[in-house]
Amino acid sequence: MSAPDKKIPVGILGATGMVGQQYVTLLANHPWFEITAVAASFRSSGIPYSKAIENRWCLDTPPPATLKDLVVQDATHITEIASRCKIVFSAIELEKEELKKLEENYAHAGMHVVSNASAHRWTHDVPMIIPEINASHLQIIPEQQKNRGWKGSITVKPNCSIQSYLAPLYALIRAGYPISKIFVTTLQALSGAGYPGVASLDMIDNVIPYINGEEEKTEKEPLKILGTIQDGKFVLHTGLEISAHCNRVAVRDGHLACVSIGFQEKIPSIEETINIWQQFRSVPQELNLPSAPFMPIIYSKEENRPQPRKDRMYERGMGITVGRVRACTLLDLKFVGLSHNTLRGAAGGGVLNAELMIAKHYAI
Ligand code: NAP
Question: Which of 184, 173, 180 is CA-nearest to residue 239?
């Protein structure tokens, strides 16, 4: 895939938040994109970005110096933002119906909206993309534009909790081992709750066995991602049951998932499972997209890995680390998966989606 002739102007909605900060960092030196707008709530608008994130910058690397003086816009000032950019990355924390409408208004104004939020995940003509799994779902976009009379579009990425294991499961399905049951327990990092997130006195010395709405998302979203498009509509994947427990743990970044799986018929051996994961490559790797991990899934042989602190930055935070694959006494196989929730699970995944849209000529 050759790079676009010139850099594409992009905006970040929710640029002051936890995910927005990752977007700003990933896009500041991106080979295809140039940040021309940063937006947030009215509370942060009208002041330089450096001022808006003062005392709330969460990353270890400093904010990009090039954005220091860029004035934060109010995300509801769509005409102004649309005059500056072609793609907007949506990382806003807002009530569902309000955010739905806001993202639709951007698409109506001709913007391609790549969203991290859940607002549009179940909208019938909006694709929910993990590029290694269902890049082909982008083909719904012309239908979406026709239905709505939009020149722009909306594409979403799924919940961060499923990113730690869905690609490894898809790799097994693609290799001819359909799965009928998934039992998963997630251990989800604090950054997944945004900033300032969960109160420290609730988290220190503790695990919270509840994250609002997370288990429902974990159980349902894979069915759309693994599904097909028929007659311009998404048809959910069938024959797969998922049961999830989602927990908030006192880890800064990186969602860990302990997964048991039952296969429909044939069961791969442990050696074959590891081999399938290590050989797995898909559309982002074939297209050589700038944010694509070279090896999307890595198997860690060490018996006590993956661990969030040690493994979350594998492939610049875009890879998935799996380990501890072994026989399951209730289902067939079990393993542990890990991904970085604000990179692969949020901003990095969003940037990869946008690169895919450009490479496949669905945007610009
Ligand atoms: P966050 O740290 O709380 O940041 C929220 C952002 O939304 C801030 O920039 C905030 O701006 C902005 N905002 C709030 N109300 C607004 C309004 N009325 N109009 C415009 N902007 C508004 O949250 P986050 O963790 O970054 O999450 C952002 C989105 O990504 C959420 O939809 C979340 O579900 C999703 N997500 C998060 C993760 C993760 O790991 N954290 C993973 C996947 C998806 P101000 O600073 O001006 O208030």
Answer: 180
Q: Where are the alpha helices (DSSP H) in 46-163?
A: 49-52, 78-82, 96-108, 131-134, 141-148
CA of 19 from ligand 1 middle (Å) equals 7
| Nearest CA, atom 9, ligand 1 | 14
What is the mean pLDDT, run by run of 10 residues, along the chain of 364 residues? 89 97 97 98 97 96 96 97 97 97 98 97 97 98 96 97 96 98 98 95 98 97 97 95 98 98 97 98 98 98 98 98 98 98 98 98 92
Quick check: is 340 catalytic? Answer: no
Does 2 reside within a domain? Answer: no
Q: Which domain holds residue 187?
A: 161-339
Residues lining ligand 1, CB < 6 A?
14, 16-20, 40-41, 43-44, 75, 91-94, 116-117, 160, 191-192, 194-195, 341-342, 345-346
**What spacing in Å lies between the alpha carbon of 110 and ligand 1's midpoint?**
23
C-alpha dist (Å) from residue 340 to 307, 336, 362: 11, 14, 27
Model pLDDT for residues 156-198, shown as the tens digit of each residue: 999 998 999 999 999 999 999 999 999 999 999 999 999 999 9
Residue with the smallest CA separation from ligand 1 atom 25 is 194
The yes-or-no answer on residue 258 being catalytic is no
Q: Which of 120, 160, 246, 340 is catalytic?
A: 160
Q: What is the pTM of this model?
A: 0.97
Residues 15 and 148 in one domain: yes
The two structure tokens encoding residue 344: 């692969």
Question: What per-residue confidence (pLDDT) applies to 42?
Answer: 96
- Residue ID of nearest Cα to ligand 1 atom 23: 194
Q: What's the pLDDT tens digit per position in 207-242?
A: 999 999 999 999 999 999 999 999 889 999 999 999
In a domain, 3, yes or no: no
What total number of domains does the chain contain? Answer: 2
315-316-319-321 Cα dihedral, nearest 10 degrees: 80
**Looking at ligand 1, which atom is closest to the CA of residue 342?**
40
* Same-domain status, 188 and 327: yes
Cis peptide before 306 (omega within 30 of 0): yes
